[in-house]
Amino acid sequence: MSAPRVLISILNWNKAPDTLECLRSLRAQVHEGFSVDVLVIDNGSAPADYAALQASVDSAWVTIKRIDNNLGFTGGHNVAIAMAIEQGYDFIWLLNNDATVAPDTLSKLVNAIVPDALCGAVSPVLYPEAGTAHEHGWGITHDWRSRSHDWIPDAHASMQLHTTDPEAVCLTGTAILLRVQALREVGSLDARLFAYYDDNDIGTRLARGGWRSKVVFDASAIHALRTLAEQPPYFFYLMFRNELIFWHTHMPPAHRKLLWLKLVNQSLYHVHRLRYRGFARQADSALLGVWDFIRGTSGAPKLDRKPPLAMRAASRLLAYMHERQLRKHEPKAAATA
User: Are 206 and 213 in contact (CB under 8 A)?
Assistant: First the structure.
């Protein structure tokens, strides 16, 4: 490969200060041996936020593309992915605007992916704040039988899995560098999802397309974690709906028997778990997400409504059964955010 070309894609949606801080960390990036272009896609932000972004960005090294409507994480980045494919970039770095990176992060990612022709994606280790030892982002695995995904707990487990079963590793979305050729083959991000579970989805499609995903253990990015109480209502809607879309889309044939019923029951259990733990408002948003999966609705969340009465009644009936299980496994007195 001649000198690789990298496109960095960052989305801004009413968070210009975060985006500008992210860009400041990119300004210090060392990228010897490859070229970099930075694209900020404004995803339908309010005029004042967009104006603040425009006023502070140096157009000599950052391009801003304004989109009138919020296309979500998947739709926004797909604009950049289409550009990367059309203009012959070798790699595209999908970087969260609320993340910051060390000066050598991109260089380490590029140096890790270039020589591995079967590697479709790489990611740095993630830290919730600078100077902390509580790193995360070691990767994700999927248990198709139990319809659950697990965060790889630490560096040792991740390194071992990279050796014994590399096809099982999916990357945590925040700062994933993707090989454009891999995206040509497996497709862009799933626009149905809008946001969340896009990392599970693209990682699974890469693996099934013969591409590996790797954590680059000496590269780092900072990305703060939120508690459940800090998450907005749309997070619960999208997480519950998109989890169902993910499993229903990708479940292998061996585990598809009664899949729809199993998925809905499992999701309603977790809706009731939220309510049991005192997150009533969040549970309402999650229930709406389950309902929209049932009716085949995807795309942007619309939270100014309720599921139909029949859905709410069925949920209440199941809640009695689920609460018995919850009392066994999660004493109410111990429930916290």
Answer: yes
Tell me the one-letter amino acid at 279: F
Residue 205's Cβ-count burial label (10 Å; 0-12, 13-18, 19+) is buried
Q: Are 215 and 162 in contact (CB under 8 A)?
A: yes
Distance CA(84)–CA(251), nearest Å, equals 30
Structure tokens at 262: 């199993």
219 bridge partner residues? none
Give the C-alpha distances (Å, rounded to integers) separating 115 from 1, 104, 111. Answer: 9, 18, 7
**pLDDT reported for residue 46:** 97
Give the chain's mean pLDDT. Answer: 93
- Looking at residue 30, its pLDDT comes to 85
In single-letter form, the type of residue at position 183 comes to L
Residue 50 CA to residue 66 CA, distance in Å, equals: 8
Helix (H) or strand (E) holding 175: strand 175-179
Burial of 123 (0-12, 13-18, 19+ CB in 10 A): buried
Prediction pTM value = 0.93
Whether the Cβ atoms of residue 177 and residue 113 lie closer than 8 Å to each other: yes
334's enclosing H/E stretch is none
CA distance 271 to 289: 10
Segment 313-322, tens digit of pLDDT = 999 989 988 9
Mean pLDDT of 168-173: 94
